[in-house]
Batch of 4 targets.
Target 1
Amino acid sequence: MDQKQKNILIVIVVIGLLFWFLVPILNLLNFALFRIGIPILWFACLFSIWTTRKDTGIKVLWTIVICFSYLLGPLFWFFWGKRNT
């Protein structure tokens, strides 16, 4: 085995070890994002909706959109609805 093949083998082993150790950490981040972060985003979004000076019908409509869409509703509100409605 020449030096180039040894270097490629070392890189493959290092990437494999990093992947082996990073998968549990990525699973914890996934858990934190979707189990903790999204409900916080929902409450912040609902608080933002109900503290604006918009019509109550618009507030109810946005609340329904938020409650029936998991992640897209809050993102639509913060990036589009907050400014345009």
Note: The CA atoms of residues 4 and 10 lie 10 Å apart.
Target 2
Amino acid sequence: METTRVSSKGQVVIPKSIRDRLHLEAGATLSVGVKNDAIVLHQVRKALRLPTESEIDAVAGCLKVGGPMPSRTDEDAAIAALFRKEWGR
């Protein structure tokens, strides 16, 4: 457990080890709440924006396939999986 202080402006510094562990960067948005006697912070993640059909078409020819061409549904599922892996949703 680490400690920090509240400034005269009500600001709190989140220790670096915790910021690193949670991949918090400057400008990250946090929601603040109270549970019992504890202050609770949650990182607000940006909503996942799925690619448009034209964006998918623009990169579809760049994909290397070792077998038969995947269906559009397979491509959509693969791209969605990559987005989830990258942004955690």
Note: The mean pLDDT is 85.
Target 3
Amino acid sequence: MIEIRGVTRSYGAFKALDDANLAIREGEFFSLLGPSGCGKTTLLRMIAGFDTPTSGSIHIDGQPMEGIPANRRPTNMVFQSYAIFPHLNVEQNVAYGLKRLRLDAGEEKRRVEEALAQVSLSGLGKRGATELSGGQRQRVALARALVMRPKVLLLDEPLSALDKKLREQMQVELRRLQQAVGITFILVTHDQYEALALSDRIAVMFGGRIAQVASPKEIYQRPVNRQVADFLGGMNFMKGDVVETNGATITLDTPGFGRVRTEKPAGFVANGHATLGIRPERLRVLWDDATASHEIEGRVVERHYFGEITHLVVEVPGFEKPLSVTETNDFGADDLPLGAAIRLAYDPDALVAMGD
């Protein structure tokens, strides 16, 4: 549906976007994820036609977009601020973009009602814009975009103004809506959990460049480098000395886990060492007399309670830094005293080699 070919956007000597190449499929929920200033909104605005590339090209549904203004592209955008007109009611807000199509009154009414039904706002057409909750305003903005029947819906951090509970509810609704209407959604977000929950695929961006494009599971479990791994949730890192590289695998010697064989990271260049990582939830506390084929011993130095889970910081001999461990509270992780000696089990398959 969308092809980004060698797109760069420069402002003087500063490159907001640097040689971006990306193919987004028809009907997928695609997220542009990264910290503030990484170039994700710049890329979204160029797809929308609000900005133009310094070099490179953008194609939508096979058509080049060079010289095509925003109002003639098969896209529509939902902004972070929603931009709801306060002097118009719900149905007037939704119908606003239809006016330039010069539809007859019956067709316009039918399309507005259809769009409101899609976002679960049927029956609220006469309600004033100022009488809406945050979630309702967000859905009005979605309906106003969908009523134009775009091929691509662009979402610029549309949930960032909502509180945590409402945000989580709207994430579920947004995914349901995308699956129901079947068009391509492109979401810009800095929230890694939002991207993981909603997306078919994610492009992770830093400093104007795309670091990795993959499914949420692949990006989380097999990040290509330390920067991607660190941005998507916590991870324990350690250095390993390269013993052997053999096809798709790499063998490392580590001071903590000993000799480890794992998948060779993408783009790996042999220079004698690599970074090894393991997610905190892949380290498990061994209770009582339980044993595991792979375990290490350590001492609890910090404990942080988060309701259903407890986050432990554990000093382990051989590791330069303490390990982060995420443990459910089923067996009493929340009651472990500081200084307690514990044993941790791990699966060697959870150890991921990656570039720096």
Note: The radius of gyration is 24 Å.
Target 4
Amino acid sequence: MFNIGWQEFLIISVVIVIILGPKELPNALNFVLNISRKIQILAREFLSETENIMTKEDIRKVKQTIKDIKFDDNLIKEFNENEEVKDE
């Protein structure tokens, strides 16, 4: 994900333990995990709503196309003329 090797991870871990201390480390990890969970929930909701909007927009376009075809007399006349040509 971040292209961090084990050596970099070890150095970062040691620095965090030195800065926060062993007593505050569990609280800091809980805070980071809670933030991470909230971000994941928000991302899932965002993707879900985006898919819903896209689906609704697609359905609206299909309905409009059907209405356009249904009420387009010129298109029906052209279709009928083409059918007459094929019949001959």
Note: The chain is about 90% helix and 0% strand.
